[in-house]
Amino acid sequence: MIILAATPIGNLGDASRRLVEALGNAEVIASEDTRVTIHLMRALGIENRPRLIALHEHNEVEKASEIAELARETDVLVLTDAGMPAISDPGFSIVTAAIAAGVTVTALPGPSAVITALALSGLPTDRFTFEGFLPRKGRLASLRQLAREPRTMVFFESPNRLADALGDIATAFGPDRRVAVCRELTKLYEEVRRGTAAELVEWATAGVKGEICIVVEGGALQEIDLVAGIVQVQRLVSAGSKL
User: Fold this and answer.
1) From the CB of residue 208, how many other CB atoms can be counted at a distance below 10 Å?
2) Of 108, 123, 141, which residue is a domain's last?
3) For 213-232, b where at least 16 C-beta lie within 10 A, e where not — what string?
């Protein structure tokens, strides 16, 4: 069996009883960084010494079938450094390989930066979309493709690129679009900044540290029509059309 286990995203107290029990009984753990896993087990007072398999973005596809086959014989606990495996972290390839091999997949739910940020944002939570990390190249173009998205959007971003990302959000969605920047969630210096895209650009320019989630309000119908029209005109001009 493959067991996806959510780990604390900051506060060690968020480790569930089921996670502690699973770590204490595990024979095999596939983890994003084995050093982080060892540190977590020590911090939780767990003396178990399971077999550890490194599973990260550079080897996940290669290791997926091997781990799925191993899970036929013994339970394999799958961990990432923080949060739920397979959500912008290693785990997806393992799940698909296990399903294809007829191996059972289950999960130990727990902390999630995406859901925590959404809940704290003050933006609509009834419908949302998770977009992962914004691309380093073509970020503005990617955001413009979301101009017609009416649902609340959640992104991950590096603190070093936050100001530029917010600037592109202001350009793509308009400077008055409501945004919440959530950083260091569940940690000592947790902070949530709420405001318009333009306001938060000014704040972020001074420098921000920590793990970042950006939550962006979905577009209103009138705004969507306007932005979509602008994007369409830009595409036509780029294609050589004469207006």
Assistant:
1) 21
2) 108
3) bbbbbbbeeebbeebeeebe
Residue pointed to by tokens 């596939």: 30
Which CATH number do you get for residue 11?
3.40.1010.10
The answer to whether 111 and 12 have CB atoms below 8 angstroms apart is no
Q: How far is CA 82 from CA 39, 121, 133, 217, 222, in A?
A: 12, 20, 15, 26, 39
Residue 158 identity (one-letter amino acid): S
Q: Which residues pair with 180 in a beta bridge?
A: 194, 215
Tell me the chain's radius of gyration from C-alpha atoms. Answer: 21
**pLDDT, block means (10 residues), the chain with 243 residues:** 97 97 97 96 96 91 93 96 92 95 97 97 97 92 94 96 96 96 96 97 93 95 59 68 58
Tell me the whole-structure pTM to 2 decimals.
Answer: 0.85
